[in-house]
Amino acid sequence: MISDIVNAISGVFAFLTTPVSWVIVQFHKVFGAVFGPDTGWAWGLSIVSLVVLIRICLIPLFVKQIKATRNMQLLQPQMKAIQERYKNDKQRQSEEMMKLYKETGTNPLSSCLPILVQSPFFFALYHTLSGIADNKKIGVIDQSLLDSAQKAHIFGAPLAAKFTDSASEIAKMGASLTDVRVVTAIMIVLMSASQFYTQRQLMTKNVDLTVKTPFMQQQKMLMYVFPLIFLFMGINFPVGVLVYWLTTNVWTMGQQMYVISRNPTPGSKAQAKMLEGLQKHVITHSATRTKRERNIVKGIVAKGRDRNEQERKFINGLSKAGLAAQADGTVVKSSTVTEVLDEDGTPAGTPKRQQPKRQSKSQRQTGVGAVPGAKPETSSPAKPSLEKKAQPQDATPAAKQTGAKPAGSNGRSKAKSGQRKGQQRSQSSSKK
């Protein structure tokens, strides 16, 4: 079923068969003169060269993809604000996100553009190799080139053989079923693994993980979806198509590694690693030696207090080494230490406001553990025995003269704050 779908799609892009086959034939002439016209090296390297040519032509599109990705990163704070505002209304949240994309001219699907643009060439190559397997002239490939391509084997597997071919079909191409299955299985696994690693590298190293956005969810989905697509569809691809797609995956992986190392996303692990290496280099030479280094330092200085954690660490490291970053991107020696910022953006060494330690109820009553010089919450009670000795012995409380009970039950006076509850000593020595 999958094979029928692929054949149907390939028929849609059959108009590209002629230019694709013409490019392969031109490269075959070059490599055929070196390795021999009927070898797998000549035809395999011709397909690899086709990939390289297509990817070079797609470099402007790749640059556009990088700019769109950067725009998505710049929108992260606004996306986070929308998520917090409409966290209980997913529909309104999606509407506001789409409105933001429209206002800023950002397309969240831009990361898929290189794959979408390559697809027509991919299916055109599939259509060409299928014609070779069926012994049909296709595009500019005449009978002599058709015979040469059918003789070409890559590690024992014919150029047009597939994993799902039967033993009789493979025998017609002069190969064994075991060789074809082993070679195609290895190439399918490598193709899926390279696609997974490329997406995982983007997610783990070049994304600001402090903000969760639909863009990150999209990238995470692609990280698992595309390898599975290649894994299940790869068994229906000829060996030549597997060579094509494995080559383009390796190219994408290398191209992405270069971009991440040279221009990482702010706030990502890749930026932290890049700034750490740049800091060591600048401190060693006490200067920024290249235009790229000056541009990086210039951009960090221009941010001021809006720097992220990695950028603050970079500026603080230079300051501790006695260096000062200038607005033009240069670094000069400084006799005074420049302002060092903490992670919250405040100058280092600024006293932090601390909450007073909460005391227990007994400490508040007795004054134990109070801060020296601070006014206690409750004044310590005076000693009743010393105060009441100064009173006349015949001074009897009004309550006792009238026979009324004082406030409280059982005639006991209510304990004042800070005094022990219980029966009090008699105030008059005459009533013993």
Task: Describe the protein's architecture and organization.
The termini are far apart. Strand 1 (153-154) and strand 2 (157-158) form a beta hairpin. With 432 residues, the chain is mostly helical. The protein has helices at 2-12, 17-35, 40-57, 59-74, 76-85, 90-104, 113-133, 143-151, 167-172, 177-205, 214-233, 239-262, 269-285, 291-303, 309-320, 361-366, 384-388, 398-402, and strands at residues 153-154, 157-158, 323-325, 331-333. The strands form 2 sheets. A two-stranded antiparallel sheet has the order 1-2. Strands 3-4 form a two-stranded antiparallel ribbon. The chain contains 18 helices and 4 strands.
Distance between the first and last residues' Cα = 112 Å
Percent of residues in helices: 55-70%
Mean pLDDT: 75
β content, as a range? under 5%
User: How is the main sheet built?
Assistant: 2 strands, antiparallel
| Cα-based radius of gyration, to the nearest Å | 40 Å
String of helices and strands: HHHHHHHHEEHHHHHHHEEHHH
User: How many H/I helical runs?
Assistant: 18
What oligomeric assembly is this protein in? single chain
**Which ranges are low-confidence, i.e. pLDDT below 50, for 5 or more consecutive residues?**
337-345, 376-419, 428-432
SS-based structural class?
mainly alpha
Overall morphology: elongated
Total number of strands: 4
Q: Give the strand order of the largest sheet, numbering strands 1, 2, ... along the chain.
A: 1-2
A few lines on this structure:
With 432 residues, the protein is mainly α. It is built from 18 helices and four strands.
